[in-house]
Amino acid sequence: MIETFNAIMLKGSGNASVLAGGIATALTTTAAGLVVAIPATILHRYFLRRLDGIVVIMEEESTKLVDALHTDRSVNVKLV
To answer: How would DSSP label each residue in 1-53?
Structure first.
């Protein structure tokens, strides 16, 4: 966009071909940013959900462990 504003400053805004180069550069960098950001966001959400599931399992198992240590009853342990 800086190139576009420089072209407007130097040659005026009447010639669209002068503006096209700067706009094309801006769109290219925007597209490249989206190509990186969208998969990164999807992977982040996937691993976050997976981690939340692991935390829930760990909480359940630690509760079973505490119950087993403080009582005489047997507990079924889930192995991952």
So the answer is: -HHHHHHHHHH-SS-HHHHHHHHHHHHHHHHHHHHHHHHHHHHHHHHHHHHHH
How far apart are the two ends of the chain, measured CA to CA in Å?
53
Number of folded domains in the chain?
A: 1
User: What does pTM read for this prediction?
Assistant: 0.58
Q: Tell me whether residue 80 is in a domain.
A: no
Summarised one tens digit per residue, pLDDT across range 30-64 is: 899 999 999 999 999 999 999 999 999 999 999 98
> In sequence order, what are the residues at sequence separation of 6 or more whose Cβ sits closer than 8 angstroms to the Cβ of residue 24?
none
- Round to whole Å and give the CA distance between 72 and 6: 80
